[in-house]
Amino acid sequence: MIAIACDHGAYDLKETVKNWLLAQDYAVEDFGTFSSESVDYPDFGAAAARAVADGLCERGIVLCTSGIGISIAANKVHGIRCALCMNPLMAELARNHNDANMLALSAGLVGDLMNLRTVETFLSTAFAGGRHQKRVDKITALEEV
Q1: N or C, which end of the chain has less CB nearby within 10 Å?
Q2: Among 6, 8, 57, 64, which one carries the catalytic annotation?
Q3: DSSP string, 94-122
């Protein structure tokens, strides 16, 4: 199950990504928003992040105009490693090296096709483990301080 959420600035892109996910046979839990009416991104980003952190969803995708605000909000949830990725290479590295469990996308700075390729890479890339596990463990330990 993939959690997805956005603010008003990324509503159209969220619908595009959600439809692509469904066409690829992913199960999707949509945490809103459900229109382009102005809302506050932390409310929606946190809801999707909680679903991932609680194990209800395997991974999450959050979107706003820049991708910055909603990624910051998602990363405030214990257990979340949300990476703002502007292209497939960034998504590959976020998964491969950092075991990112959430992806943040920008609706205003990146086109739909590039965002869809980024989603595809994020979902198809495995965590490499090995030497990277020690670093991910250190990131996780920061939540305990």
Answers
A1: C
A2: 64
A3: HHHHH---EEEEETTTS-HHHHHHHHHHH
Is the domain spanning 2-144 CATH 3.40.50.150? The answer is no
Residue pair 70/113 in contact by the 8 Å Cβ criterion:
no
pLDDT digits (tens, 9 = 90+) for 114-130: 999 999 999 999 999 99
8 is catalytic: no
What pLDDT does residue 131 have? 93
Domain coordinates of the chain in residue numbers?
2-144
97 among known catalytic residues: yes
CA dist., res. 100 & res. 83, Å (int): 6
User: What's phi and psi for 62, nearest 5 deg?
Assistant: -125, 145
Position 25 pLDDT exceeds 80? yes
Phi, psi of 88 (to 5 degrees): -60, -35
CA distances from 142 to 41, 55, 78, 94, 95 (A): 24, 20, 10, 18, 19
Q: Above 90 in pLDDT, residue 145?
A: no
Q: How large is the average pLDDT for residues 46-74?
A: 98
